[in-house]
Amino acid sequence: MGMSGLSPRFVDVILPVPLPGTFTYSLPLEWEDQVIPGVRVVVQFGSHKVFAAVVKSVHGTAPSTYAVKPVLDVLDPQPVLALRQLDFWSWISDYYLSTPGEVMAAALPVALRLQSETRISLHPDYNGDHSVLTDREYLVAEALEIQESLTLKEIGTILHLKNPMPVVRNLLSKGVAAAQEEVEERVKPRFVDFVVFGKACSSEQQIGEWMSRLEKRAARQLDVLLAFLQICREEDAKEVEKGVLLKRSGVSSTVFSALLKQEVFEIIKRRVDRVRPYEGPLIQPVELNPYQEQALLGIRQGFAEGKVVMLHGVTSSGKTEVYIHLIAEALREGKQVLYLLPEIALTMQLIGRLQKHFGGRMLVYHSRFNEQERVEVWNRLLDDNLNTIQGGRLVVGARSSVLLPFDKLGLIIVDEEHDSSYKQVDPGPRYNARDAAVVLAAKQDARVLLGTATPSMESYFNALSGKYALVTLDKRHAGLEMPLVRIVDMKDARKRKQVQGHFSQALLEELRLNLEAGKQSILFQNRRGFAPSLECNLCSWSPRCVNCDVSLTYHKKNHELRCHYCGYVQSMPQRCAACGDQDLRMRGYGTERIEEELTLLFPEAKVARLDYDTTRSKSGYQNIISSFEEGAVDILIGTQMVTKGLDFDKVSLVGILNADALMGFPEFRAHERGFQLLAQVSGRAGRRDQGHVVVQSYNIHHPVLSYVLKHDFQGFYFHELNERHRFHYPPYYRLIEIRLKHKDERQIERMAAQLIISLKKTFGNRVLGPTSPYVSRVRNYHLRHLMIKIEKTLVMGDVKKRLMSALEDYRKIPENRSLIVLVDVDPL
Asked: Which pTM does this prediction carry?
């Protein structure tokens, strides 16, 4: 630093707490030359709590308002984040009106943001080898073998140390311990059964003897043994995954169990990564068709002009192949590439495809990873930033991937850019990963491609106004026609008695023809459970959640009522709680009900359901998708999970059971979301032949349906744009939503009314509300919403400063402090 010893030094640090601004600490002399921005230091905050804080700046100015505490320790020899990240964190904090600590908590894996309350447990892979440990580390490891987990504070007591963080950091880096947050559901490590030779086959001679024996009396068992030897030879390995072995040998698990009993084989359980590295030969990007080639040229031209490029490609037009060519180019330049997907757990099919192209240069990052896997990806990127990357690096990730420590970004692809999953709702920062990606790219001089078949209104507006470059890919791959859409009038069908259960005769006929042709079908019903509610036929009483203002949903499998907001569960009542009558009836229907009806209507068909209830475990989702892909399922029923980029060759029919439910929500994006969902789910039909789509509706004259029928995105866009302009909504106005929460209903009414009066002094009639949301009580908190509509001619920075100042003044009044106030910039 060159200032050593001349004057006292101070650091401004970011703490993972939801408080505004940074905090200043004094820097002891011995660390002056070690501490630079991006390094973590240990500091005391409050009277007892200890935190690992990130240094934002080093300077010589002591704060005038409070006496500074010293930094207790330095945790890192090198920064744990890319320095340009600090600038990006500041932008997120300023734009989305969140605190720097909220951004830090969202960005850093928990193992890097240690604090007194952080819980430490033994790493599931730790083999008990104490030889690599110091005395203090051994004491902690020994304590963790007795107790499942300990807080940092408890570890400090065991070691008689005020600051145990350096010891814990070493245990984490040696893979002995793992950090976890109590509030976070811990992801269980994934263990897979591997097959090895057992005691009866411990030599070449014994293997030969068993082969002769089985040849004479157990041909199916011999098939397993031969398949095992063949796979071992092909992969130069001594163990084979059990699932792979059974598939290759084509035998049942009963045949395999017989070999286990005879000790020909034994099973060892091995922990495997959730996204396992691809080890096969890499394949080159395929040759593009003329339309894709034209799109690629258009994208390059947009990049050359320094613009964000919007690729508007109809479903099944081959956008992914265009992406692969662009990724390969950026990697050849030694750049980092970020490929953002809305929900990565739902796109393992695509990840497998990308791995075949980019192999070990590809990293995957998402919420189903455990902490060690997250830190590993984080550290790989930090290493890339310090060293020259050989052939570049591709990161495929969900929303939080924009917060990774990139420093050599060349390209960001935001696939399905319209998807609402890119918006973080709770906790803060309430950022939109698509919009943040555009800013991140600008800060790193990288290029951005937004791709979708159904662009968001804002992005398409930017494209047509010339802010973004627009490239269109309107031909389906291999010259396929867009699917034929048929809208069925359910009112008329019911009058004519052409409905069975929740199916029109038209849809049942299409399903029957599809089954006979050996094709697959997808049915879309965006509501899980058996029936949305139970109702007394005499007095209309309906069981409701004790914590939330919603009816409980009936789930037949467990014969229980469940709240989809807080998880409250209640057993099925036998009689009405209001009048005592026993005539309780189901109202509405969900995916579980549809599944039951289908199995009665088509007993020979193999039916599966894809929703939150069947995919709570990651393997649950993967198993259903794999079965469908392999043709073991004829009809797949699903919620909006089935719209997320799945590509199945044999699907030629899509049925949408209740289109009206998608467009009936009382909020300004309802039509946009309805159109996008209908178009996306329709796009799953006919990926190899022209498909059919049947849409069931009670309101066939709804304007959105006419645009879906004609695959007319532009017509829909201009119709919707006209409405947005008329009622002062994006893209013509900006929105800030203020969400209020309080446990007392009368109090929230009073406080909301007062806050409106206060805000109107600053913003006038731009403030709307308070309104009760669709569900006005969740987890025993009453909710009210306020909205501020801001013309684009106003400077947003000034507007936000005035808003925060008004909220601070409001909070200064003691009786208002119990109100929880959440600010959401650009709400969805």
From this structure: 0.79
